[in-house]
Amino acid sequence: MGKALPTSQRAYQYAKERILDGILAGGELISEGTVAEALGISRTPVREAFLRLETEGLLRLYPKRGAVVVPVSAKEVETVLETRELIESFAAEKVSSLGASALERLVKELREQLDEQRELREAGDGKAFVAADQLFHQLIVQAADNPILLDLYAGLRDRQQRMGLYAVFNDGDRLRATNHEHVELVSLLEKGDLAAYRSALRGHLRGTRAAVLGHQDSSIQPSTDVD
Fold it and tell me: How far apart are the first and last CA of the chain?
């Protein structure tokens, strides 16, 4: 029988999942008492969880009032996508240099992911599609066989999840467009056309940026209609 999670960890996971999923929108006030009541725990571990989330940039604490969910800013979107472009472009080049067998294994895994994404798109499951989207890109970075680079990329995971859900909810065509763009990326990778791959990746990330930001200039709010 597994050991029960500490109450502060439970509170942390509870609040963080709702922030990343968009259930708690940017700018929304969340109180220690609300989380404590939902989990049937005291406020002390919730306070510890909130402090941890503040250090991660997801909450801004206000004494005696609670915490406000930090909205996704245009600057954050730009910096995350710039970092992704650098890492993913390098990873694709590295995999191509590892030989035909390494590239073939990766292409096979990516095509399996494309099939899953297509099913999720047809089912209209935006949340699961975003997770599959993240895995698709992670597989490319992972195949580069550079653990430090993979750790750096993993550090973007939470921001990518949050931005991915914003993109899906802000743009009803984003599931189809993303799936189509992924097909093109796999095809170019398989052909070894790295210049075209980099260009397609840049276009793919620009599409994500446009879907996330929409017509907002400084910050965005997600739909709260998650699943």
Answer: 31
